[in-house]
Design brief:
It contains five helices and no strands. It has helices spanning 11-16, 18-22, 28-39, 42-62, 69-92. The chain starts with 10 loop residues before the first helix and ends with a helix. The protein has one domain. The relative contact order is 0.09. Helix content is 73%, strand content 0%. The chain is globular. It is mainly alpha-helical.
């Protein structure tokens, strides 16, 4: 273990946030924390590169297509339901 908490991060946590970083959906502090970890962790930077290539491929092959508004609304509803159920189960468990 090092004295730097960014280097001691669990690689699973880093890889879980890779898509947030790729989609520019994380704040600057999170981006910096992830980048610092990956700068010193070969497996994470390799996984990041693979995810980046997948994102690029998806963008090229599926870019410009938009989900119907009804589908997006149903997905939002299901996500909110899932979050609510998880919160209830977590607080009761």
């Amino acid at each position: 273990m090092s004295d730097d908490p960014d280097l001691d991060m669990d690689c699973t946590a880093v890889l879980a946030d890779v898509w947030l970083m790729l989609d520019n959906e994380c704040d600057q502090a999170t981006r910096q924390r992830l980048q610092e970890h990956m700068d010193h962790c070969s497996p994470c930077i390799e996984a990041y590169g693979i995810e980046e290539k997948i994102k690029g491929l998806l963008s090229r092959k599926c870019g410009g297509e938009h989900a119907p508004e009804g589908l997006r609304d149903r997905l939002k509803l299901e996500i909110h339901r899932s979050i609510s159920v998880t919160r209830i189960e977590t607080t009761e468990g």
